[in-house]
Amino acid sequence: MRQPRAILTTHRLSKEFRGFHAVDEVDLSVAEGTVHALVGPNGAGKTTLFNLLTGFLKPSGGRITFDGRDVTGQPPERIACLGVARSFQVASLFPQMTAREHVELALQSATGLGRRFWRSDKLMRRFSGRAGELLDEVGLVQLAEQPAGSLPYGRKRALELAIALALDPKLLLLDEPTAGMGLEDVDRTTSLIARVGAGRTVVMVEHNMSVVGSLADTVTVLQRGEVLAEGPYDRVKADPQVVEAYLGADVA
Ligand code: ADP
Ligand code: MG
Predict the structure, then answer these.
(1) Which among 17, 54, 57 is the best mutation to test ligand 1's pocket, defined by most ligand atoms within 8 Å of the CB?
(2) Which residues are paired to 43 by β-bridges?
(3) Of all atoms in ligand 1, which is nearest to the CA of residue 50?
(4) Looking at residue 92, what is its pLDDT?
(5) Averaged over 85-90, what is the pLDDT?
(6) What's the per-residue H, E or C state across 24-48?
(7) Are 84 and 169 in contact (CB under 8 A)?
């Protein structure tokens, strides 16, 4: 089989907070079309790395290349424009707006049309077909006309995913997609990510090892800002250093 190309790479990527190395010379290579999980103990630097990749933090050193371009130090809007979408936090949903309206608005903003047309009926009709497809893709078709504020927690996260997908991203970044979910929502979200991940590139920070095991093609384990291990889940899980650092408690 031909090796997929790396759509995202980092070279000695580093972030210091007043002399503290939160991310320390990390080399990462994310293959196009794969699901890549970032795991590691609390404080390992996962969120910081994620913020570097999306431009929310500027690196102290090293480089980031996305889709053949050096994007080091670029602002979040620029990185988003190049095709990197990140799942939004629940707090960013508008409680009174319906699920459908959220997705239509996201589709509208992806076209770059100005605020002049904001939620005009005519324009929204242009997006309603695609919005319906996206809501279907995340299993929200039946809840499309519900205000976002009334959706159960797991469905809010599914809506965030639909909003991220509206940008038709080349790379989808998911920040702990199953955090705070009960078992049923975890299962539903896992199959949802498997479905939307087909044919897309996904990088996710995830603590639930069974989710990582069933979704990730590649796992990178971070510890104290450094890459401790990287590879397929089964190999990484068996690495004695990893077991000691992190997985031991979960797997034992
Ligand atoms: P993780 O997501 O793996 O739990 P983080 O990336 O949030 O870890 O944090 C890594 C380390 O960097 C932690 O020790 C944290 O306290 C520190 N850190 C994160 N953000 C900041 C900040 N803005 N200022 C100072 N220290 C920070
Ligand atoms: Mg974190």
Answers:
(1) 17
(2) none
(3) 6
(4) 78
(5) 70
(6) EEEEEEEECCCEEEEECCCCCCHHH
(7) yes
Cα Rg, the chain, nearest whole Å = 19
CB distance 48 to ligand 1 below 6 Å: yes
| DSSP assignment of 85-129 | EEPPPGGGS-TTSBHHHHHHHHHHHHHT--GGGTT-HHHHHHHHH
The per-residue pLDDT for range 88-116, each reduced to its tens digit, is: 555 679 999 999 999 998 888 877 655 55
| Cβ of residue 44 lying under 6 Å from some atom of ligand 1 | yes
The domains located in the chain, with CATH, are 1-83+171-188+201-252 (3.40.50.300), 90-168 (no CATH)
Residue 159 above 60 pLDDT?
yes
Atom of ligand 1 nearest to the CA of 42: 4
Distance in angstroms (rounded) separating the CA atoms of residues 159 and 3: 33
Chain-centre distance of CA 24, in angstroms?
Answer: 21
Count of C-beta atoms within a 10 Å radius of residue 125: 10
Q: Is 22 in the pocket of ligand 1 (CB under 6 A)?
A: yes
**Band (62; pLDDT cuts 50, 70, 90):** very high
Nearest CA to ligand 1 atom 22: 17
Q: What is the pLDDT of residue 250?
A: 47
CB 229 within 8 A of CB 237: no
Average pLDDT over residues 142-157: 94
Q: Cα 78 vs. chain centroid, distance in angstroms?
A: 17
Q: Quick one: average pLDDT of 153-180?
A: 90
Q: Which ligand is nearest to the CA of 45?
A: 1
Q: Whose CA is nearest to atom 7 of ligand 1?
A: 47
